[in-house]
Amino acid sequence: MRELEERYEGYEVYDDAGEKIGKVDDLFIDEADREEYIGVKMGLFGLSGKTLIPMEIAHVEEQQRRIEVDASKDQVKNAPRYHDEDDIDHAFEARIRKHFGLESQEPSPERGTYGHYVGTKVGEGATRRDVDEPLEPREETRDVPLEQPVVLIRVRRVRTMV
Question: How many domains in the chain?
Answer without folding.
Answer: 1
